[in-house]
Amino acid sequence: MIRLCPLLLLLTAAAAAFASGADEAHVSIAVAEKGLAFAKDVLIGEAVRSLTPLRLPGVEKAVRVPFLGGVRVAASNITLFHLDVGDNSTIFPGDSGLLVVASGITANISMHWSYCYDSWLFPIEIADSGTASILVQGMEVGITMVIKNNNGSLALSASQCGCYVKDLVISLDGGASWFYQGFINAFEDHIKAAVEKAIPENIIEGAGTLDSFLQGLPRTISLDDVAAFNMTFINDPHYGNSSIEFDINGLVTSAVAKTTNLQKHPQLSLACGGASKMLLLSLDEDVLNSALEVHFKAGSMHWVVDKVPDQSLLNTANWKFIIPRLYWNYPNDDMLLNISMASSPVIRITSEKIEATINADMVIDVVDGKEIVPVACISVIVSTSGVVDASGNKVYGRVGLDNFSLALKWSRIGNFHMSLIQGVIRVFLNTVCMPYLNSRLGNGFILPVVHGFTLQDVYVLTSAEQLTLCSDVTFNASSLASLSLL
Ligand SMILES: *[C@@H]1O[C@H](CO)[C@@H](O)[C@H](O)[C@H]1NC(C)=O
Ligand SMILES: *[C@@H]1O[C@H](CO)[C@@H](O)[C@H](O)[C@H]1NC(C)=O
Ligand SMILES: *[C@@H]1O[C@H](CO)[C@@H](O)[C@H](O)[C@H]1NC(C)=O
Ligand SMILES: *[C@@H]1O[C@H](CO)[C@@H](O)[C@H](O)[C@H]1NC(C)=O
Ligand SMILES: *[C@@H]1O[C@H](CO)[C@@H](O)[C@H](O)[C@H]1NC(C)=O
Ligand SMILES: *[C@@H]1O[C@H](CO)[C@@H](O)[C@H](O)[C@H]1NC(C)=O
Ligand SMILES: *[C@@H]1O[C@H](CO)[C@@H](O)[C@H](O)[C@H]1NC(C)=O
Ligand SMILES: *[C@@H]1O[C@H](CO)[C@@H](O)[C@H](O)[C@H]1NC(C)=O
Ligand SMILES: *[C@@H]1O[C@H](CO)[C@@H](O)[C@H](O)[C@H]1NC(C)=O
Known about the structure:
2 domains, 45% strand, Bactericidal permeability-increasing protein, domain 2, alpha+beta, eight-stranded antiparallel β-sheet, 24 strands, Bactericidal permeability-increasing protein, domain 1, 8 helices, binds 2-acetamido-2-deoxy-beta-D-glucopyranose
């Protein structure tokens, strides 16, 4: 039903000033502490994947050495091919940005080395070369990211990024490497500086790609051919001590009909029934009502019933004594019920349950030979209540009949008392309408998530005027490979 497109960006997180003003948000998504930690791990994983292999610039140096004379040393093809971030990383939401710090990182670098020198000892030029493996230890990387609302989309920037390398261990192989091990200082400073420069540059570049991805997210997401979900972000994200919240317009609109914009703001509570979940998605009841309204206005709420469990009910003979004129005018004819909505169904959410009021017109048709003759119309107002449940990536609903009222709107078969048909209608609602609704709700609404992410252990809470989905998220990096985020 509602595509959690922003999932990834939510999980990407970042910072920014407080936001106020426009109050048109009907959907809120909060990334809780556990979700931020997850986002951090995904981000770091993606960063590592995109950073390796990283080619660093080569170096050539002339060193004067007593007795040996001028030595030219060179390192080339310096490649950082492995990064190990370990568990020592943290994410801090703050006022000025979202800070991610990873420390204790180790990295493996390979390179090609060469030496050549002339000396008075050996009048000919001597050259030697080989490869080297370099272990970088105790590397620390910090990034401050800022997410702001840019005209309804999210814009991300890496405002600061730093990298510090504590230690390098260089081991030369090949050539007379034991002999040259003493010269490695000539490489050490260069490699350290190259790593400290290249990693932040590449991370900032990766943040640019992520920014383009966020800003390129669609503003509306089609739910079907008539309805679209408004994905416009409202305000800058709100920062808590250990969470970030994003507000989305979230109303369902259509090209045909504009929905009324109720001014409200979801009150998101981070309490997810006591459980600690990564993600909380809060929907105003307006979101559901706007979806129903769009479908109502598009004229898609129609239902012709020609089969019921007790088929004799759809024959005029069965109504001989209750509505005598129906039988006398159309003896032994089959009947149809042509049901359409008189107004858009209305959903109300309370902390106990979800209620829906359906206001339908039921036209009784008689099949007279080849002709379908409408003979009466009964207004049926039905109160139902139900529960919403979730399993996997799907949300399901189940409703039951509470009560209903009937009124005769018009009739070509004389007046007849609603109390006479009350019992039959109750049976009809319970044995035909509710099972029909439940079969549709029972198919569930898929919550599509950004490629690579899967919702896990979703559960649903209701509170006044609001539905909240609490969920954990899993991430499958290999299925994201094509997206190549960072
Ligand atoms: C550079 O190093 C990589 C990995 O160590 C190696 O596969 C590649 O052949 C080297 N390229 C050159 C030109 O030496
Ligand atoms: C994690 O990083 C902090 C800060 O750099 C450091 O003090 C701590 O010793 C590190 N812990 C481990 C297990 O590496
Ligand atoms: C990185 O270097 C360390 C120490 O030399 C070694 O144990 C480890 O296997 C290397 N990792 C890779 C991926 O080559
Ligand atoms: C803001 O977004 C709207 C809707 O997508 C677009 O029409 C408008 O040109 C944008 N304005 C700016 C300044 O980018
Ligand atoms: C955030 O942390 C500060 C200091 O620890 C505390 O005073 C404040 O109440 C916290 N705010 C929230 C919303 O938890
Ligand atoms: C989507 O929401 C934004 C912000 O509330 C609003 O300005 C825009 O008109 C809405 N789009 C549609 C198609 O209703
Ligand atoms: C049902 O009613 C609608 C209008 O309310 C009409 O267009 C349609 O033809 C009717 N269908 C039948 C089978 O009576
Ligand atoms: C069902 O009962 C409730 C409470 O008694 C009432 O408010 C509501 O209007 C009734 N619904 C119908 C369709 O009669
Ligand atoms: C992850 O995605 C890949 C590629 O789509 C798939 O082959 C693999 O089975 C997935 N792994 C899990 C644990 O879902």
